[in-house]
Amino acid sequence: MADVAVHHETDHGHHSSTGLSNNKLAMWLFLGSECLLFGGLISTYMLYRGRVSNGPHPSAIYDIPFTSVSSFVLLMSSLTMVLAVTSAQRGDDKKTSLWLIVTALLGATFIGGQVYEFTTFYREGLGFTTSLFGSSFYALTGFHGVHVSVGVIFLLSTMGIIKKNRITGTKAEVVELIGLYWHFVDIVWIVIFTLVYLIPA
Amino acid sequence: MSAATESHTDSHDHGLSDAGYIKIALILAAITALEVSTYYVDFGPLFLPSLLIMMVVKFVMVVSYFMHLKFDNKIFSFLFYVGLALALFCYIVALATFKFFIA
Prior knowledge:
The complex is a heterodimer. Chain A is mostly helical. Chain A is built from 7 helices and no strands. Chain A has a single domain, classed as Up-down Bundle (Four Helix Bundle (Hemerythrin (Met), subunit A)). The longest helix of chain A is centred in the C-terminal third of the chain and has 32 residues, at about 130-165. By secondary structure, chain B is mainly alpha-helical. Chain B has 2 domains: about 1-70; about 75-105. In chain B, about 75% of the residues lie in helices and about 0% in strands. Chain B contains 4 helices and no strands. Chain B is flat and about 45 Å long. At the A-B interface, helix 1, helix 2, helix 4 and helix 7 of A face helix 1, helix 2, helix 3 and helix 4 of B.
């Protein structure tokens, strides 16, 4: 059992004194710190969501069926991402690229939905400076959207470097690290979907 | 090459099979459908607790299975959950300071 564990851990690039991958340790540390960033944004929204001096109230503009479909799309992108990781661990480059591009497409669909939602809200009178609710809503969902967009860029870049065989380090680990980032973006949306959209102000 | 293949197989054993991940995704989709149903069906006093419980269950499932924390070294769990616990503590205190929890 110990042999298996050591064998598994030595499969990944550079290692710390713990025997674990430095890259993976750094990614988990980064994700832990991201909890603080999104915690701050979510708390600010919770505090200000009822502060609507001008413009529309949250319940008047949220389109729950539309956001539910977006949430489902992002959730399914987590499945395709984990399938990309398992394909990379099996050394199947073709399937890895396929699942990475499907994940990127699902992510892009989610972003498209968010752009549509923001545009609709703006036309209905909710600007970034209209009210405290508007500012905190756009800051929170905007930051999340930027994270998804960065994730899509990561996915497409990884797919490109896998195709050109220019990846440095262990291929499976690189895909796994991007997977961790992508799943994190998904879990943040799980929290946002419930606290922002489903629980009324 | 054979060593590399063996190593990949070992690392794959630490997670679920593809079918297992699909099952997890189906469970997550079903929970999401239940969450959305609270918008249409009146859950009464169970509305808030049920939504929060479903949110936590989905969160833990993604972190444990899709992010492999259940199968990975505990140091990774420590790094992530300490960050999460710090965030929860810090912001619950901040919200309490602003009397957020007082109806």
